[in-house]
């Protein structure tokens, strides 16, 4: 009876309470002692109030604390820990910094959490080969910091880059504004040290660019931690562009801004990034950070060109002309590095700024072909009217990767319901336009239920088979990505985000 | 031959007699019988039949890759010659969805009026199908600036062992929904399924392209110049060729550095200056038609008898490998990848040479793949290098998961997979 | 059945509940948190601590030793506020939480004693002077190293933090013009511990201000700003201190208020908020006083006649409350850069706490030492001759660690450094 009231996913969670299911054998004293021998007592978290803070990542709708957290300091320790769990039939969930937005680090039938945060050494920066060798707990931004003196940087730059780890980036195949020109994580990972669920350490790929056999590195990137634990990676570094031109372009409405995006893409110039913020977001960001965004704007674009200094002025003129042609009311060029920095800081922290507008908000992550941006924004506008909920838009326009932010108040039940349905409707529209359910946040637990919108059962089976190559017993981050067999998973709460 | 007659009948009953034929030319080494299906569904039917019969089946584009390395022809070849459609092309999205049998040349003819191209330049793009380029991870000089099929592929359709059509990815440039099946199929050499569709990112065709060449007295001089140049400017491509390949592309038989530059007129002006400053007075620029022709000869360089192999090392290790190697080469300097040409004709010596070069490649954290050898020794030659034992185990499991009965291009991949 | 408790069912009135909702659990604060940098565990991060607060507030968690330990471990540096995109008022949250803990949690005796000692002595300069006077004699006799060796570890680490007491003299004055009648007036708040252990910093700050053309006003008596109490949960006394300071500072009529200890200036700058519920007259005064707080570097920048030249390499450490509280980062650096011959090199994570944090290094020595080592590492890596900073606590903490390493990098307060540069150049 109780289960009838709940979504299958909730059922999964409650079944977690009944120990003994496959992969969820009990954490007991003997196990704690065995793991303590490997990582030292300081590397374990087993006390109730401490476990509590790990019960969710950046996706806060669903909560489930692990029974035990292990924080290994090396590949070898990770291997010994996984071997120990394997022998006892215990499933685990990997976690980096816990900044993920789809519940990738939420334990679902996984009693033990493996935290990579202590594996945070940058082992080498090789300027001749333009490679960095790092442990998976290294924070994204630290890689670029370390590469800077060599005139290099690490291209994927998710908005959480000041905190998120390379391991988490690999799991989610993270993007960021500058992936428009430089590609996402999978384009920048050449080699991986992977600890398989049974504890075996495998080296995949390497410093060379060609494949030797199947592209296992490519299969691990984006697998959301369901294939074992990545402890180390060889990353490709990119030469820092000679120069940047960063524009703030103002439009009266969203429509003309998206027209400009299409025109820029079609012009043959590939900007480093094209980001859009609509009026709601512009106000929130300006209130929060005071970077001089035009209060009257219906929408703004941040367009960044990078490359050879000699060529940028020409390109800048072209972009300005295109923008004006699409109806831009103002095209402002960042006058200094400081101004450019402030613009980007504001953009990357826009989500947080929205946190100041409403008690709760739900951030969606969908993708449409770039030419369909005006269409999807119209849909979003209609959805907003239909559910009487304000929806802000801040997104990677150049990639067609939208992030509608649905504002609501969790104390008003209709609004909660509305936020859920609005998010779903927008996602369904993305798929109908030839787009995708997620551009960079991942499926996790959040969108398992929507997967059948995009993939046939046959596609999903092939994906499950791929996962089983690495993890036949489904011990690593079980119950993620692929909806459980035969069920259309009900989503019980809005797509992000009840602040804790 | 009786097996193939039986198969022929069955395939004929599935797709009609006029689309089943005997192999010709290079195809004869790839398969005993060729079917030319027109749809994914037909391929599904054929695969289901092969699965039931445990007949081996391979996808064939222009039969160049597998024709060179297959030990014995497979029972059935699926020619993709009738699956060459552009499924969807919206220029403003800069993506294109195609059937796998279309060649890169054909595809570029479709996209070039919009100023766009699929930035993949394997040997002779007029023959290279998208399917083969993905499956064999073929790439050319442009890999330095544009990446490879691995970077440009955003969606894939293939037929799996049970005949079902499987799709991964999608039609948008940024997409992390589900496992990355593009990576599973990319570089799998047809051992996991038959690629039928692909969605690719397109790139703008640069307004201007030029190429700088410099004759060098030694390989080490050429690589030193290449390294300096790679640090000095973003290049479209950067090759070093040894004397014989230099001659084959119409240059003097010397160690030669070839650097492609592309961009707007202003960019080219700046790049020219930078290249000239870095390489000194001895460098020579080729522009317009002469640049295009030289680039095409460089890209399509394949006219050597003997053993052909491809080495991949960390970029900084490639020069030393080639300088001491004593074989002719075309090196993608900056990428750490080179094609090696040994004019050794004796089959035994070819085996020996491949073995030695492979050991040397491994010594510098690299791999060596043999692309072509005397057909006589195809049975003994390890065409593919072997990855670490852990990775190999996973690859065997991968094969087992996607092709449990071993019907897709058996025995032709890493370690006999 | 419901997985989340309803809003009305609160376990504890620990903090202003709505403030917790500013946190969207994004995690951007993690790397900005010094204790997370060391332990790399979520409960030692701002997000984790807010999560604990919320769980405590909702009654989902007991106020047990584990929860208290992680809340105690917060340095109160507010680096997280700078990193936070959502404008979480972390400082207020942790202060309120600590106040709640002190009122509702029974600490173990040694902990209680240690805290009691700090609370009874530090805010009162006279008491501190008496306590350290024997030490002054011992030092003069050259016996400090011996004394340190003789003490048990817990006391030794306290002793090692103390600067050489002989050097806390006020040094020779630097030349300054007589202030014009229209000159702006400034008060340098002398604080509590600072006026005993960091006298030269205060004297030099006043001399520099005079040189820059300000009229320096002296208060008859300054008392503790209350920050120490606020950070350790003794809110009642903090309010008393704050009120006394507001009255004195308002009466002084100074246009600007500075302190050589950035923790103090930040505390005073927040008096408006702290005393907002007091009677109208006082709360208005508090607001006025708070609005007049600035930093020495802001006042000196572009007004202080600079030395002709002073050749050396300097690295600058951001004191937490100066950077994260008052938002002052550029002015001190610009001042340093404007000295001809001086080369300023940035250290890694310059705005990461050194572990001093008021009395933190006395109550949480293990974490404090780990942070000091980290700070010393990044300082030494710059190969600078001097590390300049603007807070005596940081000065003692970093100097103590550098002494232990045998490093000859000199740690100097900005006021002392500028005064030295001017004197050296003038000679």
Radius of gyration of chain A: 23 Å
Give the biggest beta sheet of chain A.
Answer: 7 strands, antiparallel
- What portion of residues of chain C belong to β-strands? 5-15%
Q: End-to-end distance of chain C, in Å?
A: 79 Å
Number of domains of chain A: 4
Summed up, the helix count of chain C is: 23
pLDDT below 50 for ≥5 consecutive residues: which ranges of chain A?
1-21, 485-500
Uncertain runs of chain C are: 1-9
The mean pLDDT of chain A is 89
Mean of all residue-level pLDDT scores of chain C: 89
CATH class of the domain at 306-426 in chain C: Alpha Beta
Q: Quick gist of this model?
A:
Chain B is built from 16 helices and 19 strands.
Give your account of this protein's structure:
The complex is a heterotrimer of chains A (500), B (417) and C (427). Chain A is of the alpha+beta class and 500 residues long. Helix content of chain A is 35%, strand content 19%. In chain A, β8 (189-195) and β9 (201-205) form a beta hairpin. Chain B starts with a helix and ends in a 15-residue tail after the last helix. Chain B has helices spanning 2-15, 27-30, 40-53, 65-69, 104-111, 130-135, 143-146, 149-152, 181-185, 219-232, 243-248, 265-279, 288-299, 315-323, 347-363, 389-402; strands at 20-21, 34-35, 57-60, 76-79, 86-90, 95-99, 116-117, 153-159, 165-169, 194-201, 203-204, 208-216, 237-241, 255-263, 284-287, 307-312, 328-332, 337-342, 367-372. Chain B is built from 16 helices and 19 strands. Helices cover 36% and strands 23% of the residues of chain B. Chain B is an alpha+beta fold and 417 residues long. Chain B has an eight-stranded antiparallel sheet with strand order 15-12-14-13-17-18-16-19. The mean pLDDT of chain B is 95. With 427 residues, chain C is of the alpha/beta class. Among the domains of chain C are: 17-104, Fumarate Reductase Iron-sulfur Protein, Chain B, domain 2, CATH 1.10.1060; 306-426, Rossmann fold. Helix content of chain C is 52%, strand content 7%. Chain C is built from 23 helices and seven strands. Chain C has helices spanning 34-39, 46-57, 65-72, 79-83, 90-104, 109-121, 125-140, 144-150, 153-161, 193-197, 199-211, 227-232, 235-252, 262-269, 271-274, 280-291, 296-300, 320-325, 330-337, 360-363, 365-381, 392-405, 414-426, and strands at 185-189, 215-217, 256-259, 312-316, 342-344, 386-389, 410-413. A four-stranded parallel sheet of chain C has the order 5-4-6-7, with helices on both faces. A three-stranded parallel sheet of chain C has the order 2-1-3. The N and C termini of chain C lie far apart (79 Å). Residues 1-9 of chain C have low confidence and may be disordered. The chains are: A alpha+beta (500), B alpha+beta (417), C alpha/beta (427). The interface between A and C is large, with 46 and 40 residues.
């Amino acid at each position: 009876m109780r289960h009838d009231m709940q979504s299958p996913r909730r059922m999964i969670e409650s079944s977690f309470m009944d120990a003994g299911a496959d992969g969820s054998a009990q954490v007991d004293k003997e196990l704690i002692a065995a793991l303590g021998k490997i990582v030292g007592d300081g590397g374990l978290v087993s006390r109730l109030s401490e476990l509590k803070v790990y019960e969710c990542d950046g996706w806060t709708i669903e909560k489930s604390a692990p029974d035990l957290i292990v924080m290994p300091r090396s590949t070898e320790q990770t291997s010994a820990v996984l071997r120990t769990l394997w022998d006892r039939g215990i499933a685990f969930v990997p976690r980096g910094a816990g900044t993920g937005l789809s519940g990738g680090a939420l334990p679902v039938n996984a009693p033990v959490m493996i935290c990579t945060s202590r594996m945070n050494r940058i082992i080498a920066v090789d300027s001749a080969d333009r490679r960095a060798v790092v442990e998976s707990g290294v924070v994204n931004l630290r890689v670029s910091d370390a590469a800077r003196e060599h005139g290099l940087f690490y291209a994927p730059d998710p908005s959480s880059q000041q905190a998120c780890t390379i391991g988490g980036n690999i799991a989610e195949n993270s993007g960021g504004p500058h992936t428009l020109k430089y590609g996402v994580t999978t384009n920048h990972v050449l080699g991986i040290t992977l600890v398989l669920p049974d504890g075996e350490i495998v080296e995949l790929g390497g410093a060379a660019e060609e494949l030797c056999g199947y592209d296992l590195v490519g299969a691990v990137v984006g697998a959301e931690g369901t294939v074992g634990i990545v402890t180390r990676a060889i990353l490709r570094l990119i030469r820092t562009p000679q120069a940047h031109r960063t524009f703030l372009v103002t439009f009266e409405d969203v429509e003309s801004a998206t027209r400009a995006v299409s025109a820029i893409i079609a012009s043959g110039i590939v900007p480093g990034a094209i980001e859009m913020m609509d009026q709601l977001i512009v106000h929130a960001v300006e209130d929060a950070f005071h970077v001089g965004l035009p209060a009257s704007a219906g929408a703004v674009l941040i367009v960044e060109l990078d490359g050879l200094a000699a060529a940028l002025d020409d390109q800048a003129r072209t972009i300005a002309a295109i923008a004006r042609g699409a109806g831009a009311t103002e095209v402002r060029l960042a006058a200094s590095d400081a101004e450019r920095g402030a613009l980007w800081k504001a953009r990357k922290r826009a989500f947080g700024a929205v946190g100041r507008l409403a008690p709760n908000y739900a951030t969606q992550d969908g993708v449409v072909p770039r030419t369909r941006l005006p269409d999807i924004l119209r849909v979003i506008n209609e959805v907003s009217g239909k559910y009487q909920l304000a929806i802000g838009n801040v997104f990677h326009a150049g990639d067609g990767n939208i992030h509608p932010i649905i504002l609501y108040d969790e104390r008003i039940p209709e609004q909660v319901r509305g936020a859920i349905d609005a998010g779903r409707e927008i996602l369904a529209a993305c798929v109908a336009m030839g787009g995708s359910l997620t551009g960079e946040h991942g499926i996790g637990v959040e969108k398992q239920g929507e997967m059948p919108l995009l993939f046939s059962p046959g596609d999903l089976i092939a994906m499950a088979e791929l996962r089983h190559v690495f993890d036949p017993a489904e011990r690593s981050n079980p119950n993620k990505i692929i909806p459980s067999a035969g069920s259309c998973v009900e989503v019980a709460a809005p797509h992000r985000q009840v602040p804790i | 031959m009786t097996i193939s007659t039986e198969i022929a009948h069955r395939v004929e009953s599935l797709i009609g007699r006029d689309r089943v034929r005997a192999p010709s030319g290079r195809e004869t080494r790839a398969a005993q019988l060729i079917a030319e299906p027109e749809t994914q569904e037909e391929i599904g039917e054929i695969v289901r039949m092969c699965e039931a019969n445990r007949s081996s089946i391979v996808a064939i584009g222009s039969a160049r890759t597998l024709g060179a390395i297959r030990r014995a022809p497979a029972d059935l070849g699926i020619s993709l010659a009738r699956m060459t459609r552009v499924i969807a092309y919206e220029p403003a999205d800069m993506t294109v969805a195609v059937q796998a049998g279309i060649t890169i040349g054909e595809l570029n003819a479709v996209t070039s009026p919009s100023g766009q191209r699929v930035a993949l330049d394997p040997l002779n793009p007029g023959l290279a199908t998208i399917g083969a380029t993905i499956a064999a991870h073929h790439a050319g000089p442009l890999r330095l600036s544009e990446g490879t099929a691995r970077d440009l592929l955003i969606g894939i359709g293939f037929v799996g062992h049970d005949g079902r059509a499987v799709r991964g990815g999608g039609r948008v440039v940024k997409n992390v929904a589900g496992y990355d099946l593009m990576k599973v199929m990319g570089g799998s050499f047809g051992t996991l399924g038959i690629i039928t569709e692909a969605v690719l990112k397109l790139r703008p065709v640069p307004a201007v392209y030029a190429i700088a060449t410099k004759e060098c007295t030694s390989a080490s001089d050429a690589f030193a110049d290449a390294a300096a140049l790679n640090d000095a400017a973003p290049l479209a491509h950067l090759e070093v060729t040894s004397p014989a390949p230099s001659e084959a592309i119409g240059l003097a038989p010397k160690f030669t550095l070839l650097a492609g530059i592309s961009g707007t007129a202003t960019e080219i002006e700046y790049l020219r200056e930078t290249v000239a400053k870095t390489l000194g007075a001895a460098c020579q620029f080729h522009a317009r038609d002469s640049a295009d022709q030289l680039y095409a000869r460089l890209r399509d360089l394949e006219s050597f008898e003997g053993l052909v192999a491809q080495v991949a090392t960390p970029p900084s290790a490639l020069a030393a490998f080639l300088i001491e190697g004593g074989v002719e080469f075309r090196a993608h300097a900056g990428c750490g990848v080179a094609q090696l040409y040994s004019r050794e004709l004796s089959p035994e010596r070819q085996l020996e040479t491949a073995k030695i070069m492979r050991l040397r490649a491994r010594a510098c954290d690299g791999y060596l793949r043999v692309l072509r050898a005397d057909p006589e020794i195809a049975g003994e030659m390890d065409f593919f290098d072997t990855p670490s034992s852990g990775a190999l185990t996973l690859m065997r499991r991968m094969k087992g998961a996607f092709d449990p009965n071993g019907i897709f291009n058996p025995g032709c991949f890493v370690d006999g997979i | 059945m419901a997985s989340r408790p309803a809003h009305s069912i609160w376990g504890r009135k620990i903090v202003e509940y709505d403030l917790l909702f500013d946190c969207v659990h994004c995690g951007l604060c993690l790397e900005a948190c010094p204790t997370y940098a060391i332990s790399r565990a979520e409960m030692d991060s701002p997000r984790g601590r807010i999560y604990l607060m919320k769980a405590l507030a909702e009654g989902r968690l007991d106020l047990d030793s584990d929860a208290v330990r992680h809340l105690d471990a917060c340095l109160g540096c507010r680096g997280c506020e700078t990193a936070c995109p959502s404008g979480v008022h972390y400082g207020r949250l942790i202060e309120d939480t600590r106040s709640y803990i002190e009122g509702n949690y029974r600490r173990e005796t040694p902990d209680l004693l240690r805290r009691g000692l700090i609370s009874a002595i530090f805010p009162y300069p006279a008491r501190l002077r008496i306590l350290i006077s024997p030490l002054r004699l011992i030092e003069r006799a050259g016996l400090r190293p011996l004394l340190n060796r003789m003490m048990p570890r817990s006391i030794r680490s306290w002793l090692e933090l103390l600067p050489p007491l002989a050097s806390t003299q006020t040094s020779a004055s630097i030349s300054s013009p007589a202030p014009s009648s229209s000159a702006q007036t400034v008060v340098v708040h002398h604080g509590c511990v600072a006026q005993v252990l960091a006298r030269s910093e205060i004297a030099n700050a006043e001399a520099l201000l005079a040189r820059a053309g300000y009229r320096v006003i002296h208060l008859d008596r300054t008392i503790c700003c209350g920050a120490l109490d606020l950070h350790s949960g003794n809110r009642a006394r903090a309010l008393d201190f704050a009120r006394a300071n507001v009255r004195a500072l308002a009466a002084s009529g100074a246009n600007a208020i500075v302190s050589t200890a950035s923790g103090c200036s930040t505390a005073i700058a927040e008096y408006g908020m702290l005393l907002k519920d007091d009677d109208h007259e006082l709360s208005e005064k508090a607001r006025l006083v708070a609005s007049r707080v600035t930093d020495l570097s802001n006042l000196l920048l572009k007004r202080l006649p600079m030395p002709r030249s002073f050749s050396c390499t300097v690295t600058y450490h951001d004191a937490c409350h100066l950077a994260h509280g008052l938002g002052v980062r550029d002015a001190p650096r610009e001042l340093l850069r404007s000295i001809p011959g001086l080369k300023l090199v940035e250290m890694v994570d310059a705005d990461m706490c050194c572990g001093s944090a008021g009395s933190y290094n006395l109550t949480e020595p293990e974490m404090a030492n780990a942070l000091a080592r980290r700070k010393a590492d990044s300082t030494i890596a710059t190969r600078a001759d001097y590390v300049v900073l603007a807070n005596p606590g940081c000065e003692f903490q970093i100097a103590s660690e550098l002494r232990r390493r045998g490093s000859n990098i000199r740690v100097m307060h900005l006021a002392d450094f500028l005064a030295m540069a001017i004197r050296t150049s003038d000679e």
